[in-house]
Amino acid sequence: MKNLEIFDHIKDRSLMAVLVVDRVEEAVNTANALIKGGVSVVELTLRTPIAIEAIQAVIDNCPGMLVGAGTVLKPEQVERVKKAGAHFALSPGVNANVLIESNNFELPFIPGIATPSELQTAIDLGCTCLKLFPAEPLGGMPYLKSLSEPYKHLNIKYIPLGGININNFSSYLSCPEVISIGGSWLTPETLIKEQSWKKITTIAEESIRIIGKKSNC
Ligand code: 3PG
After folding, report:
1. DSSP of 56-76, one letter per residue?
2. CATH class belonging to 3-215
């Protein structure tokens, strides 16, 4: 899928769950629980040794899930996540070599930015969809509103992540530049370790319900 196509798919689905897993089965079971609850985009982070295997397993076993490889920090990781089947990739920051490599492998990439300078670096490198990270500690929606203002004419899209939860995510929904909101509130580590898949489905359902309510206003 090309960049714009993938960003449209992410936009249609609104919420992105951030997933950190120690076991491949945890990734598959969590992804299936999320899909049941209506959340079908996941950032599966490369923070554990089995992460790439887990990406492949989710792609193979959870049809309908849009899978982004998260925490992609090195150029050599791009080919590996692409081969595992990742639909897109993200990073907490901007790294030119990673972005060039993702371009070479035609892997849509969403780099993280926190300042105007980082934002401009990402734009210079051809990015049009950016992860605002860490969104809440930076100042949340008021910060994003000020940060994005000078670049409105460039039609940049944002995905705020970091410190977002079920109680504060709706503050971002009214911003047309925000195509998705994400975080680990959808995938609490304790519930994954307890294998409480039903509870993960319930959190996803409740989050989707809040989005529905807001967009019906
Ligand atoms: C990420 O990689 O986007 C963050 O770890 C998500 O932040 P959160 O855990 O505060 O939701």
Report:
1. HHHHHH-TT-EEEEE---SHH
2. alpha beta
